[in-house]
Amino acid sequence: MKDDIRLLRLQTLSDEMRQQLLLRTESDLGEYLDKAKLIIEAVKKEGDRALVRFCRDFDKAPLELNTIRVSEQEFAQAQAAVSQDLIEAIRFATQSISKFHQSQMVEPMRMEETRPGVFCGEKIAPIPSVACYVPRGKGSFPSVLMMTTIPAVVAGVGRVCVLTPPGPDGRVDDATLFAAREVGITEVYKCGGAQAVAAVAFGTETVPRVDKIVGPGSPWVVAAKRLLADVIDPGTPAGPSESIVFADSSANGALAGLDLIIESEHGPDSSAYLVTDSEKVARAAMQAIPEYWQMLGETRRSYSQAVLSGPRGGVILAENSQDCIDFINDYAPEHLMIHSSEPFAYLGSITNAGEILLGENTPLSLGNYVLGPNAVLPTSGAARIHSPLGVSDFLKATGIGYVTSPAYETLAKHAHTLAKYEGFDGHALAVSELRNRLRQQKESDR
Questions:
Q1: What are 320-339's pLDDT values in tens digits?
Q2: Selection from 141, 191, 203, 130 nearest residue 166 by Cα
Q3: Same CATH fold, 30-106+128-237 and 7-22+240-372?
Q4: Of 36, 190, 218, 255, which one has the greatest count of Cβ atoms within 10 A?
């Protein structure tokens, strides 16, 4: 793989070229949608047998009908296999993530008097069930399990299960299983890709049907979520990783380059840009990155090289910081890190980003693992309208109203006027003099 890092000068790009920079892997799911349909239909028709077949074909794992659900023995084996330092790291992360999400919880019910004698409010309750998807294709990710399951547990969801592809040995990653047990998850199922989404959308003999699925995944997962959106809530759009590192002229270019490596090593379908208004910073980053590549393992090095030299990564040089900010807001990145001696100076100008990490002491690695805010973030520009995964994704609100007898007349008068205007005779009749007569009759019958 070549070491050439793509360098683009923003002011020289045509509108078409600039729009091309905004595209991500999942921007065009055409090649996945048709094939995902076939997988979905097979799971709907064949259930567990389809899951076993696809696991053998796609994951190359020796799955059997009676091993789709992780057993208690597998949980115990995983706990025994995890090293002490990893146990401590998982527990530290669990505490940070739990504390942050507990702060997001709202009162289970609220009511206020909006007008004299008129009371309005909401009753908050958790959704009944959710599946949390933990990818496996390009590594093992106990961090994703923690980020997806903890807010669901904090919200009080009745049934939280995990979907994750098994490794070549047919087993789920040990650290992922240990993290599940730490969080309190007992249901883990060995399935991934479009077939996993279909399994929880329809239910199989082993995998339960649930109300919602959350978590990042490959274009196969994204395609299946899109196809099944009318069957199961697909949650926040979460596809392959993407990031922008913004560095102004006060930044250390070599350090900014180091942080550009982080999301680019997730896979060749990731997106990662360094955006800067400083030629010096750009050159320093580009000089340092090949040295960092030599410090990575072969797989992660090849992923990062593919991204930073390909059509969805590299260094973007702008004329000024405002042009940088404008591009960032157009791109709406999943992850944004700001390298500057005054990072808070830019915070108010950023309107579209899944997360914003400020300053050289807050690298994306901390956000992905131990900081606390959720690292399951909207991708492919969805940060314009979507939020990070959080407790609110697992809660539902029910509106509540109560009107006292003295307050009724005023509300009824205006409701009657609007109902008549819209042509709803029944609505109008229900707040007409007929209601008053019936109310009075009830009183006289007592």
A1: 999 999 999 999 999 999 99
A2: 191
A3: yes
A4: 190
Instruction: Report whether CATH 3.40.309.10 matches the domain 30-106+128-237.
Output: no
Q: Is the CB of residue 399 less than 8 Å from the CB of residue 106?
A: no
Catalytic residues: 334-335
Beta bridge partners of 145: none
Name the pTM for this structure. Answer: 0.91
Residue spans of the chain under pLDDT 50: 1
- What pLDDT, in 10s, does the model give residues 38-79? 999 999 999 999 999 999 999 999 999 999 999 999 999 999
Break the chain into its structural domains and give their ranges.
7-22+240-372, 30-106+128-237, 404-445
Residue type, 291: E
Contacts of residue 279, defined as CB under 8 A and 6 or more positions apart, other chains included, come to: 317
Backbone angles phi, psi at 423, to 5 degrees: 80, 20
Q: Which fold has domain 7-22+240-372?
A: Rossmann fold (3.40.50)
What local confidence, expressed as pLDDT, does residue 27 receive?
A: 65
Which two structure tokens, joined as six digits, stand for 109? Answer: 């019910």
CA nearest to 225, candidates 354, 41, 33: 33
Task: Report the interhelical angle of 84-102 vs 142-155 (nearest 10°).
Answer: 40
